[in-house]
């Protein structure tokens, strides 16, 4: 896609109908006012002759437009294109969102992607309407707005926390993008909060409460089940439907509390270093797959708006048994498949594919969980974290240990088959030495190849890590026992899935949920029958 590839009629129709589904997928630049908006902006729809459509906020800013202060286009969910596309531009956007340019400049971004700075700039300008510096500048402006409006931090601190090289650059950028000074923006935010009886602006630096927007629908029950069933005590906590955990950030660490609200995810962040705000928010959005286009995905998978599969019981340990990770199905798989009832496919609208907060942690935890249940994997992970994790202040005491520490001391703590322990140590050594790079700028094919080269990593583990690390939408976990059981329950032939492309990662989640829900239903039925038999006796 290039900056001229948009269907003008389709985009204008979305703007005319205020269709929020397209927020973040493109931006409307209005020539007569000099502003750019999200498609659902409540302002009067501009005339066709006065608008153009651009793929990024940076492209609009580069063309001299300023952000609409009514619809706040930078606050829209991110574009799903950066996940569905695997080209250079999309991979660069993922890394820019993670703050690579703020930490190492354009040279670091180009080196990570394996291109020259000149070639990278040319591709991004052609594809996205702006070069890497302009794209990073748009991200900095968004971070600055968040800090100005939601904290009481001094403006000088905000300038450097957002990644600006100087206070002057910060002031100039905010004025250019939002057409107001930083102090005016904060004063307006105070008036809005006061008028709507909103929460007061926090006075403590490093602590934030943010709204993470998403596109409806969202299968909250599925994400809640996934998060809660994988919790490793010591570094994670699930309590009162709130997910709390520590995570490593580029400049230190952070603690986050996530809860699902009616139209957003509430994220409460305690940051060790405020420069980590933008990458932390990007990683949280990636964890929950909040930039997905669920309506488009549901339409492709044939999900009717009224369809619904209930979530697996969170308290039922039988629903958290997961498959052999990397070695295919166990010997009794065919018997398990023969025992399920075949039903007409019924999928839940808005299902998401959970991502991750840390690539090395994802791989090592996945390897720890090979051949055992999710609950057992959580126990083994908790033991590792307790012994080798870094202690931090806050409600959760530990961070997941670094690959270096696991490579050096993991053998003292890890238990289980000798080969698996050796494989985990080997993977940690590859990560610690830099021989294996896990970041969102990689292609699926290259990442999968490198993962399969590791001892003890089979197709399931490679596919699972690739799907979650890169948000690859088209990974079918067809060797997964639970996915196969779900396919049997719903009557889906896993040898003929071309019609589901490019959304087979989402199909895998639907099948996973269907199988786990079927197990929960069977368990309930068995308990009910047993209770009736006991009562009659």
Explain how this protein is built:
- The chain has helices at 8-16, 57-62, 81-84, 88-97, 100-113, 117-128, 132-150, 155-161, 167-178, 182-195, 220-229, 277-288, 294-301, 333-338, 359-368, 374-388, 403-413, 418-433, 444-452, 459-470, 481-490, 504-536; strands at residues 27-30, 35-37, 51-54, 66-67, 207-213, 236-239, 242-249, 252-260, 264-271, 390-391, 398-399.
- With 537 residues, the chain is an alpha+beta fold.
- The strands form 3 sheets. The chain has a 5-stranded antiparallel beta sheet. Strands 3-1-2-4 form a 4-stranded mixed beta sheet. Strands 10-11 form a two-stranded antiparallel sheet.
- Strand 1 (27-30) and strand 2 (35-37) form a beta hairpin.
- The radius of gyration is 24 Å and the shape is globular.
- The model is unreliable at 196-204 and 314-343 (pLDDT under 50).
């Amino acid at each position: 896609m290039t900056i001229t590839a948009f269907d003008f009629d389709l985009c204008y129709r979305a703007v005319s109908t205020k269709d929020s589904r397209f927020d973040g997928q493109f931006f409307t630049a209005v020539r007569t006012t000099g502003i750019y908006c999200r498609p659902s902006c409540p302002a009067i729809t501009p005339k066709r002759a006065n608008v153009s459509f651009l793929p990024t906020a940076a492209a609009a800013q580069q063309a001299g437009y300023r952000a609409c202060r009514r619809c706040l286009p930078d606050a829209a969910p991110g574009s799903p294109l950066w996940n569905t596309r695997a080209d250079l531009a999309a991979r660069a956007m993922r890394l820019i969102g993670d703050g690579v340019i703020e930490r190492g400049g354009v040279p670091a971004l180009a080196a990570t992607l394996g291109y020259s700075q000149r070639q990278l700039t040319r591709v991004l300008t052609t594809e996205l309407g702006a070069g890497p510096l302009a794209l990073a500048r748009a991200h900095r402006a968004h971070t600055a707005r968040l800090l100005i409006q939601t904290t009481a931090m001094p403006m000088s601190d905000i300038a450097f926390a957002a990644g600006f090289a100087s206070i002057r650059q910060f002031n100039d950028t905010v004025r250019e993008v939002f057409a107001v000074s930083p102090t005016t923006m904060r004063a307006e935010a105070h008036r809005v909060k006061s008028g709507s009886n909103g929460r007061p602006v926090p006075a403590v630096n490093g602590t934030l409460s943010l709204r993470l927007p998403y596109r409806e629908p969202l299968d909250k029950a599925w994400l809640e089940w996934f998060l809660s069933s994988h919790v490793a005590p010591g570094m994670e906590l699930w309590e009162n439907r709130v997910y709390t955990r520590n995570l490593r950030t580029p400049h230190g660490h952070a603690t986050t509390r996530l809860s699902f609200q009616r139209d957003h995810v509430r994220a409460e962040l305690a940051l060790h270093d405020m420069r980590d705000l933008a990458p932390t928010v990007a990683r949280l959005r990636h964890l929950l797959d909040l930039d997905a286009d669920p309506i488009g995905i549901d339409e492709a998978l044939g999900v009717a708006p009224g369809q619904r599969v209930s979530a697996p019981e969170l308290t039922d340990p039988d629903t958290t048994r997961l498959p052999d990770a990397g070695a295919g199905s166990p010997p009794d798989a065919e018997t398990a498949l023969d025992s399920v009832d075949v039903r007409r496919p019924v999928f839940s609208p808005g299902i998401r594919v959970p991502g991750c907060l840390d690539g090395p942690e994802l791989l090592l935890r996945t390897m720890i969980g090979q051949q055992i249940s999710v609950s057992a994997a959580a126990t083994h992970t908790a033991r590792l974290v307790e012994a080798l994790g870094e202690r931090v202040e806050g409600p959760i005491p530990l961070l997941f240990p670094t690959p270096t520490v696991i490579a050096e001391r993991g053998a003292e703590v890890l238990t289980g088959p000798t080969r698996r322990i050796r494989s985990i140590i080997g993977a940690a050594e590859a990560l610690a030495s830099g021989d294996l790079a896990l970041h969102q700028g990689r292609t699926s094919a290259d990442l999968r190849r490198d993962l399969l080269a590791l001892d003890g990593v089979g197709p399931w583990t490679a596919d699972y890590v690739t799907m979650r690390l890169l948000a690859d939408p088209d990974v079918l976990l067809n060797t997964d026992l639970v996915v196969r059981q779900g396919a049997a329950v719903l009557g889906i032939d896993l040898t003929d899935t071309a019609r589901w492309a490019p959304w087979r990662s989402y199909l895998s989640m639907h099948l996973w949920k269907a199988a786990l829900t079927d197990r929960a239903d069977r368990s309930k039925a068995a308990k009910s029958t047993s209770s009736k038999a006991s009562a009659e006796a």
